[in-house]
Recover the amino acids of this structure.
């Protein structure tokens, strides 16, 4: 046993140190499984207990072969060393000390790739570290079915990036493009050619968008990726150009700002030029509506932009007219529900019931007035003098909607409650009891109502024989209690 060791509590609160080079150099081009195994192995190295490869693999949910294969991968990368196969033992090596000599790449395997890559980026040179990163991508990244990026496919990516960015394009940019395309499944020369053709087909559209934004520079892959995203969202070219020109009129514009604008319209379900144009024309009215709603609820916000995005626009998208929203807000105010969240709940509740148009809300309000009148009548019968509250309405909805009682049975429960001098809570108790017994008719209620009726007090007084005890008898009585075993 070790002379000294960390406590379990100490180990639970300690840290596992990870070199930042792991994140910048390895993580972006490493299959997730290998990264998980490496990081967990790094944690295991810092612990005092012994863990064999079987326990290690069971903890992570991988097979032993998968764990061994992963450490073989990291041995190839030069940051781990397999010390023994039986029993299986691994030694972690410092990432800072890694050099190109640590990696077990076959130089002859990539001789043609090296020559072709140098031609593509000429007159600049490619450093050993850059070549190493290309090898790592081709050797380390693979699709779920095991296929890897071929050297010919990566050369096509390098050529495409050079044509778009120039010979001074950074190799990290090339790696990012190749990796992103690989994630989409483009790893063979034929697939890469298909991807490049897609960019060529979108070239004219992207150029038109850049012109509309006031940019005269050559388009890059980034702009093409933005364009592909917008098309996937459902925007056509005319709509994208319309928004781009409108954005340019407002000041400096670029693809990032255009993306935010289109993303906002997408969230509002505005995908055509007509819908967006009408929205922008009515924007002043929408701001005015937000302020009127706040005023109705007794609220004030200097900036209502967030309120419009969070509440107003979604309500309008549901089909509600401004006048209807103001009436709902007024109803909420009168019922003591005076926040935007309360109003949102009310609108969503109305929508779930199909109450959207002004006419349907008007009819709903009339029905609500009838219900309030019935509740007021009930309160009066119980001798309660006050306005109808949301609490009363919750009771009523529970009795009539959730439990399905008619007013005849409710009136009978009120009469029983009134005889006992009770309140709404007691009415609820009676009805809850009947609901649990599946009593829903007046006849059934009357048969089971004996428990709620007041019974008459008996006139016969209970007589208790009295007796006087002497001092000695009292003392003996208490003595007996003390000796009694409880």
């Amino acid at each position: 046993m070790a002379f000294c060791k960390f406590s379990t509590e100490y180990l639970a609160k300690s840290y596992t140190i990870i070199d930042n080079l792991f994140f910048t150099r390895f993580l972006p081009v490493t299959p997730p499984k290998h990264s998980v195994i490496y990081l967990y192995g790094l944690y295991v190295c810092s612990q005092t207990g012994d863990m064999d490869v079987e326990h290690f693999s069971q903890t992570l949910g991988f097979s032993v072969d998968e764990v061994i294969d992963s450490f073989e991968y990291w041995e190839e990368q030069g940051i781990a060393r397999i010390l023994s196969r039986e029993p299986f033992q691994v030694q972690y090596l410092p990432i800072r000390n890694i050099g190109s000599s640590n990696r077990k790449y076959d130089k002859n395997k990539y001789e043609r790739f090296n020559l072709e890559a140098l031609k593509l980026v000429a007159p600049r040179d490619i450093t050993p570290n850059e070549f190493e990163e290309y090898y790592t991508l081709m050797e380390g990244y693979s699709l779920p079915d095991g296929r890897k990026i071929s050297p010919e496919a990566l050369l096509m990516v390098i050529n495409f990036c050079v044509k778009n960015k120039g010979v001074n394009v950074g190799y990290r940019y090339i790696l990012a493009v190749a990796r992103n395309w690989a994630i989409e499944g483009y790893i063979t020369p034929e697939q890469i050619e298909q991807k490049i053709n897609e960019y060529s087909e979108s070239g004219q559209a992207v150029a038109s968008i850049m012109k509309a934004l006031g940019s005269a520079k050559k388009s890059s892959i980034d702009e093409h990726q933005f364009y592909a995203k917008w098309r996937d969202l459902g925007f056509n070219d005319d709509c994208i150009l319309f928004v781009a020109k409108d954005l340019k009129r407002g000041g400096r514009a670029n693809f990032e700002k255009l993306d935010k604008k289109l993303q906002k319209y997408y969230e509002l379900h505005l995908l055509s030029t007509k819908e967006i144009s009408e929205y922008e024309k009515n924007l002043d009215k929408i701001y005015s509506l937000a302020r009127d709603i706040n005023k109705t609820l007794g609220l004030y916000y200097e900036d209502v932009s967030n309120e419009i995005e969070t509440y107003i626009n979604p309500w309008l998208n549901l089909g509600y007219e401004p006048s209807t929203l103001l009436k709902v807000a007024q109803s909420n105010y009168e019922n003591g529900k005076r926040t935007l969240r309360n109003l949102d709940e009310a609108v969503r509740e109305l929508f779930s019931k199909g109450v959207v148009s002004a006419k349907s809300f008007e009819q709903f309000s009339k029905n609500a007035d009838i219900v309030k009148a019935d509740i007021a009548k009930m309160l009066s019968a119980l001798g309660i003098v006050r306005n109808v509250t949301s609490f009363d309405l919750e009771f009523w909805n529970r009795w009539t909607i959730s439990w399905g009682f008619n007013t005849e049975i409710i009136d009978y429960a009120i009469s029983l409650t009134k005889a006992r001098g009770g309140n709404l809570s007691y009415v609820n108790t009676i009805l809850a009891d009947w609901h649990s017994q599946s009593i829903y008719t007046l006849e059934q209620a009357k048969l089971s109502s004996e428990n709620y009726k007041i019974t008459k007090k008996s006139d016969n007084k209970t007589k208790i024989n009295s007796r006087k005890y002497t001092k000695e008898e009292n003392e003996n009585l208490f003595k007996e209690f003390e000796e009694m075993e409880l």
